[in-house]
């Protein structure tokens, strides 16, 4: 009894080969900024990255001055490596600050 014809076997192998090649081409390598630092100046917080490629921005979580309002998120503009991203961030009410990269 014959299960597969030669054409069916060749077509199956070709399809399998195509499926295994797709993950290798899925996405190009992406580099992100490196050597990032955070600086504080009165009510402003900034980020600057010195290496890599891509963009970065400063993100700051702080508590609103009116009780019960809750947490506010301040985000600086996306900037390329070597440029500074700055946002308002009152230092007496900060709960978290970090650099976001892409």
Automatic annotation (TrEMBL):
Keyword annotations of the record: Signal
Signal peptide: 1-26
Keyword Signal: yes
Top-level taxon in the UniProt lineage: Bacteria
InterPro entries, sorted: TAT_signal (IPR006311)
Name of the protein in its database record: Secreted protein
